[in-house]
Amino acid sequence: MIIPANLSRPQHDLVFRQRHHHLLAGENTKVNVKGEEITLRPKLGISAVNRTTYSKALDLMKDKEDFMTIPSLIEAFYQAGRTLREPLMERTVRKLVAAEQWEALIHLWEKAPVLDFHITKHMIRESMRGFYLENEAAQESKATKGPKHGRRLLKILQSMEESGDKRLAEWAKANNSISKDQVVVGTVFAMTCNNSVRFFDGSDSKGYCEHWTAELKKVWVKAKVEGKPANKHEAKHAVTQYSPILSGLESAQKVVKGDLLKFVAEETTRLQKAIKSWEKIAGEAATK
Fold first, then answer.
1. Segments making up each domain of the chain, as ranges
2. pLDDT tens digits for 224-279?
3. CA dist 237 to 147, 192, 241, Å?
4. How many Cβ atoms are within 10 Å of 277's Cβ, its own excluded?
């Protein structure tokens, strides 16, 4: 387990106290030191991890083995009385995506139910974008791992919601659930339909493309692609998040039939117009 140098001593002290003085969380413990009685008081609450310290730890990571230790690093910080806030967790996900560490990324999410770190919508969407990039690999054996990882992330989120994880409560109130977010579901849909066209000549013998098209239709909110972004930053994010879905809609037109084909055709046109509008907003703002 990796423990940053500046936290190694506090961590050692904590372990020593627990081992030799049976210090429990929230409980004062009196010990005798050279005939003098001293009260050990546990630290109340959890403090945020120092941004510089954590960033340095991330920058030292170079290969898969290094990145796979991130959950252990988070746990080490927690044991030392530190937790990772939203900006640092979002930076962690961006780092994993930039380094193309897909196994480490899904490993982090598999540990999420038992680790104490903040979760944001941006983290989840960025993770899905990462798996979409994985899906763009030329080799079928590598590309097909993208949707598998995407589906795995969705199952993890659904399981956390069902268990009442408080970190997902915000979206459960506002949008029913983060696992039904149209960008999250739409990215899995896009990877599935794109694979059908790229590697199986548009065949959908197992019904995966039809299934995920139906799932997208359930959560699709037209107003979200018809609204005008408030600023350049939001416009850029919208283009990044919805472009994969547009590629999936274009692929789905070659695969699905019936009512689903009608839905796909209509939303392809709608999303094409929306993305052009967002690109214009982002471009105009960039030239000012």
1. 1-39, 50-118, 120-284
2. 787 777 788 889 999 999 999 999 999 999 999 999 999 999 999 999 999 999 99
3. 21, 22, 6
4. 17
